[in-house]
Amino acid sequence: MTKSFTDKLGKGGYGTVYKGSLPNGHPVAVKMLTESKGNGEEFINEVASISRTSHVNIVRLLGFCLDGSKRALIYDFMPNGSLEKFIFTDRSQIESTLGWNKLFEIVVGVARGLEYLHRGCNTRIVHFDIKPHNILLDQDFCPKISDFGLAKLCTSKECIISLIGARGTIGYIAPEVFSRNFGVVSSKSDVYSYGMMVLEMVGGRKNLDVTTTSSSETYFPHYLYKNINQYCVEACGDNGEATEIVRKMILVALWCIQTMPDDRPSMSRVVNMLEGDISDLQLPPKP
């Protein structure tokens, strides 16, 4: 299937992904999980959660293999790889490859995928690791949420989750996941991660950049909050349509990264905000 694991697509904290093909020639991505992960919680999480899903913006699990300590997950192959490689690059290169309209379509697609996980599938699912690396792009750059190794299934309507320790990736983890003083852990934790990811898509940079020469630009969300109009003009020039798209992405993302979970919109509300009129969007309190 993988030609002796010769075509490596990438490597992460939970294992290595290889390109392969089924007997009928269908291209697949085979994720070999690291053997030293104890009782294999990440494997069980991924199979249990993603097997419950069926949505255009969720990567499709085709099968899995469990042989002793060896564990593998088989997914549809995504020819354009992860979103990460497209956004953390030169701004002009991003615009020539994707353009603001396509970036906005990706933002909306991920929002719909998360809305489905939180409300639409049989068992509500909180992903807990939304970031550019975990958004895969098919041949048409349609986004697919992937890597459910940290996901939690919710049985109650409110989907309040009990966690032992923080989970996720630094830079995208909601405050309440670190400290319950900020509120309960719930699907709103994914909303925060989503907002941080969208701001990185807008800026083509990490939200926390310690290498920048300007202290005011070190934390990008605060810089955007104070300079949203200026940034939209700098990013889009006199392209009115692109300026509106970028402004909408920024405003929605700033609502998503509010410190207190109750102040963040649900993903259903996020989808409505993105698809609605920009005149209906107000600048939120400073996150």
Model description:
- A 5-stranded antiparallel sheet has the order 1-2-3-5-4, covered by helices on one side.
- The protein has helices at residues 41-50, 84-87, 91-97, 99-120, 175-178, 188-203, 220-236, 240-256, 267-275, and strands at 8-12, 15-21, 27-33, 61-67, 70-76, 124-126, 135-137, 143-145, 152-154.
- Helix 4 packs parallel to helix 8 and helix 7 runs antiparallel to helix 8.
- The termini are far apart.
- It folds into 2 domains: 8-76, Phosphorylase Kinase, domain 1 (2-Layer Sandwich), CATH 3.30.200; 84-280, Transferase(Phosphotransferase) domain 1 (Transferase(Phosphotransferase), domain 1).
- Helices cover 37% and strands 16% of the residues.
- The model has no long low-confidence stretch (mean pLDDT 86).
- With 287 residues, the protein is an alpha+beta fold.
What are its keywords?
287 residues; alpha+beta; Phosphorylase Kinase, domain 1; Transferase(Phosphotransferase), domain 1; 2 domains; two-stranded antiparallel sheet; 37% helix; globular
Total helices: the number is 9
Distance between the termini: 48 Å
Low-confidence runs: none
Helix content: 25-40%
Query: What number of domains?
Result: 2
Strand content: 15-25%
DSSP strand count: 9
- The fourth-level CATH homologous superfamily of the largest domain is Transferase(Phosphotransferase) domain 1
Q: Might you state the CATH topology name of the largest domain? A: Transferase(Phosphotransferase), domain 1
What does the secondary structure layout of this molecule look like, with pairings?
Layout: E1 8-12, E2 15-21, E3 27-33, H1 41-50, E4 61-67, E5 70-76, H2 84-87, H3 91-97, H4 99-120, E6 124-126, E7 135-137, E8 143-145, E9 152-154, H5 175-178, H6 188-203, H7 220-236, H8 240-256, H9 267-275
Antiparallel strand pairs: 1-2, 2-3, 3-5, 4-5, 6-9, 7-8
